[in-house]
Design goal:
Length: 247
């Protein structure tokens, strides 16, 4: 569904992506892991079309999006749902209004259809009857669920999750992960997730890609990554300090 070829991106003198290659299989959950500040969110923004690379290509279902602008890029984005880091809900809108927002902005549906879809989306994430509340009136875990409902309400083919469990306790992390897994099994969208949650993500990922120094250091199914002989991968997933390999 998504193919990244030779992606390069610098900000001033800081080179973040250094010829990165990655393939995301259709209908899979691909999780991108790596150190903080290592370029995971920068990569995600290229996939969404929020950033344009210095070199390289991003193809979505065979269509190169790196040179697209305006309406052509919007047509690709119609196929996307995005769960932003922290949820990014509108504080001045009730939960139901937050979920309805992309239906109004993207699809311009009649009000009865919007109401039906919003109620169904809230039901799918276990928030029946919570649509009238404001984000400040619900828990952090519930806000994550509203953000997921908003991302899925347009029935997207591809869903991007940028650190969807940031700030949650371990129980809620697993709850949100399994919610994502359940929704994925139901709707079969292609998912790309950026996450620091080790080892929890190994339970839901089909493919794990380790980003290190601007390139994918290793990619494969969770068992292969967990058994990797690559010292960079081993050090990260074990949470070892920088000099642990030299002991």
């Amino acid at each position: 569904m998504i193919k990244v070829q030779g992606l390069t991106k610098s900000f001033g003198r800081q080179q973040v992506l250094r010829g990165l290659d990655l393939e995301v299989p259709t209908g899979s959950i691909t999780v991108i892991i790596g150190r903080s500040g290592g370029g995971k969110s920068v990569l995600l923004k290229h996939l969404i079309g929020l950033l344009h690379p210095d070199a390289g290509r991003v193809l979505v279902d065979g269509v190169e999006i790196t040179g697209l602008r305006g309406r052509a890029l919007d047509e690709i984005r119609q196929r996307y749902g995005v769960v932003f880091q922290g949820g990014a809900l509108f504080d001045s809108m009730r939960c139901a209004e937050n979920v309805a927002f992309p239906l109004r902005e993207k699809l311009h549906l009649p009000r009865p259809e919007i109401v039906r879809r919003v109620e169904a989306a809230l039901h799918q994430v276990g928030l029946e009857g919570m649509g009238a509340k404001y984000p400040a009136e619900i828990s952090g875990g519930m806000r994550k669920r509203v953000a997921i409902a908003r991302a899925l309400v347009t029935e997207p083919e591809i869903v991007f999750f940028d650190e969807p469990t940031t700030g949650l306790d371990p129980i809620l992390v697993n709850t949100i992960h399994h919610l994502i897994l359940d929704l994925h099994q139901k709707f079969r969208f292609t998912a790309v997730m950026v996450s620091h949650e080790i080892p929890e993500i190994f339970e839901i990922a089909d493919t794990v890609a380790m980003l290190h120094e601007g390139r994918i250091a290793e990619v494969g199914p969770p068992p292969a990554i967990q058994a990797s002989s690559n010292p960079v991968v081993r050090q990260f997933i074990r949470g070892e300090p920088e000099n642990a390999e030299g002991r």
